[in-house]
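User: Hey, quick favor. My workstation is busy. Could you predict this chain's structure for me?
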Amino acid sequence: MFEEYRMILARFIQSRVKDPVDSEEVLSEVMMKIYAHCEKLEGIRNTEAWLITIARNTIHDYFREHKKRVSVEDPQEEIVFEESPDLIQSLSSCVPSLLKKLPEKYAQPLIQYEMEGISQKELAVRYQMSESGLKSRVQRGRKMLKSLFTEYCSHLLTEQEACDDCNC
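Assistant: No problem, here it is.
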C-alpha cells in the first residue's frame, strides 16, 4: 500500500514544500504516521483523502516547527524570517496609522472586532446588517489592511529595520 500512494503523496508534498530535502523529510514523517496508524485503515472510506489529510497536517506541523513564512507582494514569493520581538513591535506600531487609511465602514468593524473583542453578532446588530454581511466586511477590512502592509511596510520583513522609514 505504501508504494501505491507514495508517488501521490510525494507530488502533493513537493507542491507545497519546495526544498527537495525538506520535502523528502516530510514524506518520511507522513509514511511513519501512516504506518503507526494503519490499523485505522479498515474504517476509512476514502483512503486517499485520509492520506492527504495526514500529509497536509504534517506539512503544517513542519512549517510551524521550523520557520514562520509571510507572503509579500507576490503571493508566490515567500519571505522566511525568524520571529523576533523587535519585528513584531515594528509591525504592531504600523497598525494604527494603516487602520486610519482604511475606509471608515471597514476600519470600525475591524477595530471593534479584532482589537476591542466585540462579537460579530453584536456588531451586526449595531451596524444593522446581517451577521454574514458583517463577517464579509471584517474580512474585506483585513484584506485591505494586508494590502496596506504590503504597500507601506514590506521592507520591515525583508530588511528588518524600524518602522520610522515606511510613511505608514
